[in-house]
Every structure is written in structure tokens, then in C-alpha cells.
Amino acid sequence: MLRIFEQPLHYTKSIIMIKHEDSSDEDRGGGRIAILLLDFQNEFVKPEGKLYKTVEKVMKRNNVLENVPKVVEFARKKDCLIIHSPVIMRQGVHFADADIDPHAYANMDGLFTEGTWNCEFAKEVQPKESDEILRGRKDFCAFEGTDLLFILHKEKIGTIVLMGFLSNISVEETSKRAKEMMPHLNVIVCSDGCAAKSQQEHDNTMMTSLSVVGINVKTCAEALISIELISNTSDKVPKRSSMGMRISKASTSVEEKGIMMVAATVGLILLVVHGLTYVIARYGIFDGDGSGGPAMPEKDSSSNMLSITDTFPSAKLNDYQFKIYLGFIMYVTVVLTGLGLEYLVWRMLLTGDWDEVKENRWMMAQFLFSLLTATAIGLASQGNYLALPFLVIALWKCGFPETILLIYSALYETENSFLRRFIDFVSGMGTVIHHSSSALYVAMLVVHVLPPTPDVLTPVLPLLMQHWIVLLKYKYKTQYIVLEIILEFVFEWAAFSSLEKCYDISWIGGVIILSMVFAHWCYFGAGILNVLFIRDVDEVSNTMSHQIRKCSVLNALSTYEETNDEEIAKLNY
Asked: Start-end ranges of CATH 3.40.50.850 in the chain?
């Protein structure tokens, strides 16, 4: 923070030291920016105003009338919301009780009288059509009697910058109330965009009263830099989940590289992993073949009138074997539909920038997983084929391209490190096996190869529980990880406890359970590598390049016309 209280501030004569790693979390995006101008009216800022003399010295010392318009102009270019909070008094109405009025304004007549020149906005910050003007204010705090809180929520404001009068009254009360009502709001007060009756009152507010409650006190120059950085982060690299990150990156190159290699990789993973799990179950764990069904009876073909009758391969199957064949057709149908849905939703509905609406829909798709999957299992237990579309929507998260983007990132995101791509591949492989095993499980329930017995149903119940808490990872990541580990232990216990009996029912039961366990080992292996060696992909601010920051700072500083090349060259990056 620049010290501005010992002498009048001239921004362009100051050396602003900014290091790449020093930018605060508050400057890393998250929501729109609002500029709140408090009491910027002729009564305060013009010599003819009744209160001008009370703030003249501090206002001139801080260059308020030069600094604030520059911030407002720059903010408008960055699509920030400008909010004006005037004081408007009816004729003959005074301020509140003098006991709570430290400047005895209650005893002064005609302040900010409605319809008079004194009440008008200062020409330096005249409202534009796109600005918001608060009406009905009843107190020094801009929230009292106005729609300010509603506006902040409606416009999804993540950062608010306050400037105006008086530093230790309206500015202090409004900024503190903002922090109290919206704890996650980034509140910035521009120290040289405000004024008070005395320099001591102004300094005490800026140096003590505001900072102790977590309000960021900055100069107007520093506020410009914050606006630039936050705008760049919000518009170009918004804070978002790993899904949003991968979609934004992959969407720029998918047209050139195609998707066939991803499809081939998915197919190879399915063949290798399911084949290995069958071999392990058949020859490494159990002695029986897990055939489950009765022996195929001999068929009498002597009565057939057509020579082609019963020559199709499926005619050689008994009823049990034909159910397995039918179940595999349903399984492949579900997997292909799910992967195709991911691709179509990605290319048709998720193009363009990843925004908050898409992020919220992605979170909803994850949250609905448990209910939709439970519905699919219930329908499948009754042999109802409606289980299949429910399962597609549940597993493939309404088409959000979770599966194919993990594989795509591993194959094509060459700017990532080898370890990052390896982790994406392991996660993608786990997702492919998890979804395909679930599809195989439900398909075999539908065609009655697997009966809905306690041994068959028990292993899947902890998987539903794991998705109950999926939204915790966005707010309480440590608690989420702890609960997931506990539920993972429960799942694997249930899985291995039921493995032998499921295999005895059918070898497919053994393959499903072992494949699902393998998928979860992939998840946890990738998660451990990510925690130990890779920065959290959701911390988008850490991925912002140094060059973007440098250009942003120079762009903000260029607002001050006096800044010369020599001083810019002194910036320490």
C-alpha cells in the first residue's frame, strides 16, 4: 500500500512497485465491479456549496476532483457499474439528531435541498444512462432506504470501489455495512478519492477504522490496477471449475485436431481394462467360470422349412446367454450415447466463454447425479428400459464433456507439463471405466442377468452417497476430501465383500466390481498426484501469465496522462 498521508499525492511522481506474486486474492476476479460515488454533489465539491469549506483542505490535498473522474472514466471502459448515492432533502427537513451527527449538520438549513443547484451531481461525475442512481436514502449509510443491496446481488457484483464524502461518516458506514451484509464482497475504498472535515479524521478512518474490518484501502492509482486485473480475470480467465478450464482451452483447438483419437483411446481403455478384470476374476481369484446360466439344450432343426432358419449366431445361444448378448448391446448403446451427448453438448451449447451460468449448470448436473442414478437403478431392478436414458443423463452429467475433455487434455494440451497430462489421463481413464462399468451394471439389471439381490445392490449404494456431498468441494474442500475418503473405504469394503457372490451369479458381476474398484483407484491416484505436485486447477488466478499482469498494470497507469516512459520503466515486475 502506498503511503499517502504525509504529503499531497501526485500519482505520476510515485514509483509503484508491483511484483508478479504480490497481487492480492481480491484482484483475481469473481463477479462484476461497481463504483459507488457517495454524495458527489455541488454542496460538497463547489465553492458555492454550504459544505465546501468543511472539506476543502482535505479534498484539495488528496486531489479528489482530479482523481475520481479518471477512475470513473476508466471503470466505464471496463464495463463496471457506476452507482451514484446522493443526499436529497426536502425543504425544511434537517439531518438526524445532533447526538449522532458529529459535524452538527442537523443545525444547518437547506442542505442538499431537493430541486436546487446544491443537490445536483457535480459536473465532474455526471451520471450516464447506464449508471444506477440510488433513491430514498434515509441515513449516512447508502444501504439505508435504497435498493443498493438488491442491485449488488442482481448485477453479481464481486468488487465495489467507494469514493466520496465524508470519509469517516458515509464512506466508513457504507463500506462497513457492505462487508457486513456481503462478507465475500471485495470492498475497496480509495483514500485519495475521499475527503473529511479534517485530515486527522480522514487518516484515522483510512489507516485504522477500515483496515481492521477487512476493507482494502487503496489509492486511486492502485484501484485502477485492481480494476484492470479483475476485469481481465473476469472476462478472459474467469474463476471456474476444472470443467470450465478444459472447455475454454479445448474449444479453441478442437476443430484442428479432431476427436477421433479421443474416441479410439476411450475404446482401447474399455477393451484393455474390462478384459484384464475378466482375466483377473476368472483365472486369478476364482476357480469357476461364472457362467451362472443353465447348459444350452440341443435344438432340433429337422422341422425347419427354411435352410437359413437358426443360422444366425445368436440362435446358438440359450436364454441366459442371449440375455448377456442383449445386455451388452444395451451397454454399448448407453456408452456411445453418453459420449456422443458429451460431444454434441460441448460443440453446440458450450461454445464461447465459460461464464457463471454455465458453471452453475455444471454444478447442478453434478448434484443431480445421485437422484438420477438411483432412479435408473430402481427402474432397472424392475426390468424397465427407461433406466437407460436416466442413466445416460446421470453418468454423463447432462452432456457436460467431463470424460472426453480429460482424455483430450491428456492427448493435446502440449503446453501442460507431462505430469499434468498424465494426471488428466489417469483421471480420464478412471472416468471412462467408472461410467462404462455403471452402464454395464444397469444394462445387466435390466435384462435380468444380474438380479436385484442385496449382494448385487450393496456395492453401488456408497457410490450414491459419495455424490451427495459433491458440492462441498466448491466451498469446503478439506471436509469434502475427508468425507470422500471415508465413503471410499465403505465402498471398497462393500465391493470386496460382495465380489465372490456376484461372480458366482455371473462373471459379469465380477468384472463390474473389479472395474469399478480400478476406476476409483485411478481417481485417488490422480488426486494424490495433483495435491502433491500440481497447483489446484480451480485456482485460476495462479494460471494468469505474468505478461497479462504487466500489460494490465501499464494499461491502468496510462490513464494518468502525466506518466512518462522513464517512470514506467521503473516498474518492478
From this structure: 32-219
